[in-house]
Specification:
Blueprint (H helix, E strand, L loop, with lengths): L1 E7 L2 E6 L3 E6 L13 E7 L2 E7 H4 L12 E7 L2 E18 L1 E2 L16 E7 L2 E6 L7 H7 L3 H9 L2
Parallel strand pairs: 2-10, 5-7
Antiparallel strand pairs: 1-2, 1-7, 3-6, 4-5, 6-7, 8-9, 9-10
């Protein structure tokens, strides 16, 4: 699977290229109070406010520094183009073919605490952590950034 390789707090990670709407240079967002620290704020892009998550803070780091190789990946929440969000990452410099691992050892151990972690993969000899875009925003942040989303999602999941 073709992925964009980047780093989060020094760890090799990747997202499928098909999940990424755009790749932008580092942005300085406007802070929003009341959200988890890894939600850095919002920035305007193409005339609309877009929430910006700091991927390095998400994995427990200090935050992505404003480097030349730092990028904002614009993703769609649940493939909905009306709900874009940005993910700030480090060293997003190339695409790689990632082969996902298979079996129980490939799955992260704490799925409830880290719903954004997918399976481990590899590109040549390098181990790469694949991410799930739809798990990056926790419920509280989702409801504050996209009012009514959690209610809509619950209704859609009800049989």
């Amino acid at each position: 699977m073709l992925c964009l390789r980047f780093e989060l707090d020094g760890q090799a990670c990747a997202l499928p290229v098909a999940a990424i709407r755009e790749v932008l240079p580092w942005r300085d967002p406007r802070p929003l109070p009341g959200l988890p620290p890894f939600v850095r704020g919002v920035f305007r892009h193409r005339g609309r406010p877009i929430p910006l998550l700091d991927g390095c803070m998400l994995v427990g780091g200090e935050g992505c520094p404003p480097r030349i190789s730092s990028r904002v990946l614009v993703l769609d929440l649940d493939d909905d183009p009306q709900r874009p969000f940005g993910l700030l990452v480090e060293r997003a410099t190339d695409t790689v073919e990632v082969d996902p691992e298979e079996g129980p050892a490939a799955r992260p151990l704490a799925l409830d605490a880290t719903p954004w972690l997918a399976e481990l993969g590899h590109a040549g000899p390098e181990a790469i952590q694949l991410l799930r875009p739809h798990g990056l925003l926790p419920g509280k942040a989702l409801e504050l950034l996209y009012p009514g989303y959690c209610t809509e999602a619950a209704v859609m999941e009800t049989p």
